[in-house]
Design a protein that fits this description.
rod-shaped, alpha+beta, two-stranded antiparallel ribbon, five-stranded antiparallel β-sheet, 39% helix, 2 domains
């Protein structure tokens, strides 16, 4: 008798072995994808924290010793102001502008609102309008 093929048992055994290899491989792939997603999220939060720390460091390095005024033109005594039990700090900082015709001194206000650090940059060092600013959520 000349056997030139596989028996059904041999085919079934090989299919079982291949399916076990496929299951193990898919579990490894799934685990790798989940780890990659977690790592990407952590990396993104680290990037955001790095950007926030760079902006804060720049602002505080460039603090200008210029007296602050309130929105009515009254002097605020000090160049770095934070009220007692307040979650904000106000100061003037030297920020480069695109145009040389505009003063580089801008008022900066950091506030902690709902556990978020908010940076407000006013368009001048002593703004007249309370809404004349750009806002950025740092952390």
């Amino acid at each position: 008798m000349n056997n030139k093929g596989f028996t059904i048992i041999e085919v079934l055994v090989s299919l079982v072995i291949l399916s076990m290899i496929a299951i193990v491989s898919s579990n490894i792939l799934k685990s790798s994808l989940e780890t990659e997603q977690e790592t990407s999220l952590q990396l993104e939060s680290i990037k955001e924290l790095n950007l926030a720390s760079t902006i804060i460091r720049r602002d505080f390095r460039q603090i200008a010793n210029v007296s602050l005024k309130d929105y009515y033109g009254n002097n605020l005594y000090g160049t770095l102001i934070s009220q007692v039990n307040s979650k904000s700090v106000i100061f003037n900082s030297n920020i480069k502008s695109i145009s040389n015709e505009v003063s580089p001194i801008k008022r900066i206000n950091y506030e902690l609102i709902d556990n978020k650090l908010i940076r407000k940059q006013f368009f001048s060092s002593n703004p007249y309008g309370q809404d004349d600013f750009t806002q950025m959520e740092l952390i």
